[in-house]
């Protein structure tokens, strides 16, 4: 495994950092990784972290259900139930802003979102670097999923990144490529965790939203808007993903209290989710946020 260090903030170009947390990888390796914060803009960065050639090792687990679609554990089943519920919610969110047309889902996993939109009159395409995820995609969608992002894919009315941007090594390069594929009247939806949420503060280093080393970047509203602005993308709306507070809290409970019976962890996670969402009604700091952006 080759590690790389980030010496310049991709949001504000500062080279001044302070250590925020040391977080364990509970999903695959059990190794610890450091999260640094930019002292200028507050952007969080996992550094040092596996480089692009090594990071695949940290996805090679049947625990990573977004790539496998499996139902190995109760947590997997909770994730899949939540995903089924959110598919309709995501479709409704998009269609309130854009009529059915062309859509690119960047980091589409096994293609469940693409399949759902395809069944609702959208022309869909996906990009997914994980070969196992592409293999697990439904045959209806499989031929519309590509391993890399390139300009030959065409132009799109909608581009979505559902908890993907935090995984991308070349942050600014990727955003530039995606913007070039977005129609002038199109919209981009980017969902990322928010490390200023109440559940993030409660669980600290156990917060599942850090998910090191797969999550390379850790966002706040301020630096997310700053990042998009430097790509001439204007945030027109920020939408909370309220269910995430419950699922992320459940994962966090399993990390922090692994020996506690599952039903007690579920109760604690439910209470944590309610508290986090309740506090966010005043602060706006939900566990996960969707940034809806368009060309400036």
Structure description:
The protein has 296 residues and is α/β, with parallel strands linked by helices. Helices cover 36% and strands 24% of the residues. The protein contains ten helices and 13 strands. Strands 8-7-6-9-10-13-12 form a seven-stranded mixed β-sheet, with helices on both faces. Strands 2-3-4-11 form a four-stranded antiparallel β-sheet, with no helix packed on it. It is globular and about 45 Å long. The N and C termini lie far apart (41 Å). About 2% of the residues have low confidence.
Brief summary of the model shown:
The chain is of the alpha/beta class.
Blueprint of the fold:
Blueprint: E1 3-4, E2 17-24, E3 32-38, E4 44-46, E5 49-50, H1 65-68, H2 74-95, E6 102-106, H3 112-118, E7 123-127, H4 131-136, H5 139-142, E8 145-146, E9 156-162, H6 171-181, E10 182-193, H7 198-203, E11 217-218, H8 221-229, E12 233-240, H9 242-256, H10 262-283, E13 288-295
Parallel strand pairs: 6-7, 6-9, 7-8, 9-10
Antiparallel strand pairs: 1-5, 2-3, 3-4, 4-11, 10-13, 12-13
Features:
single chain; 296 residues; alpha/beta; 7-stranded mixed β-sheet; 4-stranded antiparallel β-sheet; 10 helices; globular
DSSP, total strands: 13
Largest sheet: 7 strands, mixed
Gross morphology is globular
pLDDT averaged over residues: 92
Task: Give the topology string: H per helix, E per strand.
Answer: EEEEEHHEHEHHEEHEHEHEHHE
Q: Report how far the terminal alpha carbons are from each other.
A: 41 Å
